[in-house]
Amino acid sequence: MGGLAAVSACSSEAVNDSYAHAVSSTWRHAKVDEGDKAAVLRELVRYATLAPSSHNTQCWKFRVENRSISVVADLSRRCPAVDPDDHHLFVSIGCATENLVQAALAYGLHANAIASPSSGETLRLSLEPTKAFASALFDAIPERQSTRGEYDGTPISSSELAMLERAGTGDGVQVVLLTESAAMERVLEYVIQGNTAQMNDRAFVEELKAWIRFNGSDAVRTGDGLYSGSSGNPSVPSWLGRLLFGLFFTAGSENDKYAKKVRSSSGIAVFVSETESPAQWIEVGRCYERFALQSTALGIRNAMLNQPVEVAALRRQLASFLGIGGRRPDLVVRFGRGPKLPPSLRRPVEAVLT
Ligand SMILES: Cc1cc2nc3c(=O)[nH]c(=O)nc-3n(C[C@H](O)[C@H](O)[C@H](O)COP(=O)(O)O)c2cc1C
C-alpha cells in the first residue's frame, strides 16, 4: 500500500512538473534576435496564439510570408452546438489578430489588415517597418488570463473605467459598462437562464465535455481545451471526470457559482456591434482583446459569461434591457480584482503554421 502511494505521488509530481514547465514556456516574453526575420515572424505568431479563444479551441492557422502574415480560420475546430453561426470563432480570430498587431509594433513592424483577402484566408496583415514601440498592452500579453474565480468586489476608479472603455471601443463596436448592482443582477438572471438551458441541452454538454481537460497531463498532451484547474476545479483522471461530470456539474451547482462570481465582480462589460458579419466579429475580438490586455495592465481580471448571448432568445432580451435597438450584444464580460488561477495551455507554434 505504502509502495503504491509512493508510486502515485511520484507520477502526480511528474504531471505537476510537466504542467508547470508547459506554463512557464508558454506564458513568457522571449528575447528574439531582431535581425533574424524568420525568428521574429515566428515569434509574432507565438504571441498571437496566446490570445483567448472560445473553449480554448485555438481555431486559427497562420501563413507566414516575406512581408505578411495571414490568419486563417481553422474550421475543423468549430463548436457548432455553442456557436452555430461561427460568431465566437471569428471573435477568437480577432483576439489573435490584436495580439499579433501589438507584438508586431513591439518588433518595429506596423501590421496593416488587408480588407479583401484572397480565398482561403480570413485576414491578411501586411507588415511595414516602423518605429518599435512596446505598448502596455503588449507587455500584458503573457500575464492575461480568463480568470474564472471570485473577485474582491472593490470598485474600479472612473479613470480606469474610462481606459477600459477606450480600449474596448472600435470600428462599429461599443462597450457598455454596467457597475450598478441592479443592472448586474439583471445580467446574472440572463446568465442563470442561459446556463440552465445549455446544461439541459445534450449537444451543448457533449461538445463542452469534449473540450474539457480533466487533469494536467491531458492539458499538456493536447495543449488546448479547458483545463479543469483553470476553472478552479480539481484534477481527476479523464474517465472519472467524464463519468462524474453529469453528477457534479449540474445547472443548480453552476448557477450558485455564477451568482457568487457576478456578485463579487466590480462590473460587467457588454460588447455590442452595429452589424453582423465575420469581419465585424473579428473587430469585436480585437476590441475585447484590447480591453482584456488593458485591464491586465491595470491589475484588473476579467472572464466571459456568454450564456446570455449564446442563447438566441436571451440575446434579444439582453438587447432590449440594454436599450441597444436592433444591435447584437456580442460578449458579456465580468471584471474586478482577484487572484490568478492556473493558466490554460497552448499548442506549439508548429501546430498552427500552414
Ligand atoms: C469568443 C469567446 C467566447 C468565450 N466564452 C466564454 C464563456 O462563455 N465562459 C468562459 O468562462 N470563458 C469563455 N471564453 C474564454 C475562453 O474559454 C478562454 O479564452 C480559453 O479557455 C483560454 O484561456 P485564457 O483566456 O485564460 O488564455 C471565451 C473566449 C472567447 C474568445
Shape: globular
Low-confidence stretches at least 5 residues in length (pLDDT < 50)?
A: 1-10
Strand ordering within the main sheet: 1-2-4-3
Q: What is the chains' assembly state?
A: single chain
User: Portion of residues in helices?
Assistant: 40-55%
Q: In terms of structural class, how would the helical and strand content be classed? A: alpha+beta
Bound molecules: flavin mononucleotide
Number of strands: 10
Order of helices and strands: HHEEHEEHHEHHEHEHHEHEHHE
Tell me the span between the first and last alpha carbons: 50 Å
Instruction: Compute the CA-based radius of gyration.
Output: 20 Å
Overall average pLDDT: 94
The number of helices is 13
Main β-sheet description: 4 strands, antiparallel
Name the beta content range.
15-25%
Per CATH, what is the topology of the domain at 31-143?
NADH Oxidase
Q: Give me the CATH architecture of the domain at 31-143, please.
A: 3-Layer(aba) Sandwich
CATH class of the domain at 31-143: Alpha Beta
Question: What is the CATH superfamily of the domain at 31-143?
Answer: NADH Oxidase
Task: Walk me through this protein's architecture.
- The protein has 354 residues and is an alpha+beta fold.
- It has a domain at 31-143: 3-Layer(aba) Sandwich (NADH Oxidase).
- The chain has 13 helices and ten strands.
- The protein has helices spanning 2-26, 37-49, 87-106, 136-140, 158-168, 181-199, 202-211, 216-222, 238-248, 251-263, 278-297, 307-310, 312-322, and strands spanning 60-64, 68-73, 109-114, 123-129, 173-178, 212-213, 226-227, 267-273, 301-304, 328-336.
- The strands form three sheets. A four-stranded antiparallel sheet has the order 1-2-4-3, with helices on one face. The protein has a four-stranded antiparallel sheet with strand order 5-8-10-9, with helices on both faces. Strands 6-7 form a two-stranded parallel sheet.
- Strand 1 (60-64) and strand 2 (68-73) form a beta hairpin.
- Helix 1 (2-26) crosses helix 8.
- The radius of gyration is 20 Å and the shape is globular.
- The protein starts with a helix and ends in an 18-residue tail after the last strand.
- Mean pLDDT is 94; it is low at 1-10.
- The structure holds flavin mononucleotide.
- Residues 52-56, 88, 91-92, 95, 145-146, 148, 226, 303-306, 344 line the site of flavin mononucleotide (FMN).
